[in-house]
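Example record for the data management plan.
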Amino acid sequence: MALNYIWIALFAIGVLVGVIRLFCGDAEALPAMMDSTFDMSKTAFEMTLGLTGTLTLWMGIMKIGEDSGLVNKLAKFLSPVLTKLFPEIPKNHPALGSIFMNISANMLGLDNAATPVGLKAMQELQSINKEKDTASNSMIMFLVLNTSGLTIIPVSIMAYRAQFNAADPTDVFIPLLLTTMCSTLVGLVVVSIYQKINLFQRAFLLMFAVIAALVSALFITLMGMDSEGMQKFCRLLTAILILGIILTFIFSGVFKRLNVYNSFITGAKDGFHVAVSLIPYCVAILAAVGVFRASGALDAVQDGVKAGVEWCGLNSDWVSALPVALLKPLNGAGARGMMLETFTSFGPDSFVGHLASVLQGSTDTTFYILAIYFGSVGIKKYRYSVTCGLLADLAGMIAAVFFSYFFFG
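Corresponding structural encoding:
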């Protein structure tokens, strides 16, 4: 229901602001809003169409992993942690393996790999969901961990900074990692409180220790490199991981003497059908965002916040990057566009440019993810998932401002 109200509010506020602008003499306000609905609907379709190939590929690869038993082995290996975090999921269920792969892909910034595996995990979670139109506890935990956006290697953001000739495109690496860790931790804690999960169990403490060790090892590896070397290393690591996953799944099927090609085709067909089913949800959320932005409501919010901050006698430099933060939960492409616009206006090495970079990677596109993931399995009742996702977003935004002032202010 929360997403329903937010969707209506985006349209209603956008239209109201547009009407006010019309009465103030701006005859282009409403036509611009009308054009935005068509433009964003087209963008939504193109985004979904572009996702079809990736979905088809990765769901085909996942099917090989299922048929060969590799996904079940992953689930069994990870069950000490995941069964406590997702107590509704039966032990050794394939959903646990899919969840692990999705979270791992997100941590490494592999968006194209993360989404198809995440949708596969949602299908598996739906298969054990007793109320088919209502989000289960496991679905909510999974999606909030997704929307909180924990990323260890922000490859795309570093690449955009390099394109705009930043002096050191990788200097946002540490603040970005710290920021996403804050948002993920808040999301995990909030959902755990709702679901009464004790995070001080031995399995969780061991998991946190392992993550800390891996992050420390990555720091040690990267800190001795220059900017260009760091980017090359990250790209190479990404390629090794992606190709390694594909080959591991294929050869697991070969080892089990499967018809690997047929398994791939079966899974790939499912990927195509899932992609088509996502079109209405993409169009719905992006059309609302388009109206809200084209009406000038987003600019009005930014101006109001800036005036309020300055009235309190506080530094308002961070407000110039606020559009990135406001658009990020709604639309990743829109937030990315605002980040690039910030680079153009202020420069990638300015405080605002650094903050926009950190905000872009602080969390994921909460409403888009909820709409797509829940929509793919027909979930209509989201329960407290929106609340938890937005709290994680808020924590990420606050952390982004804090760490940006600390490192770049």
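Summary line stored alongside the record: DSSP finds 18 helices and no strands in the chain.
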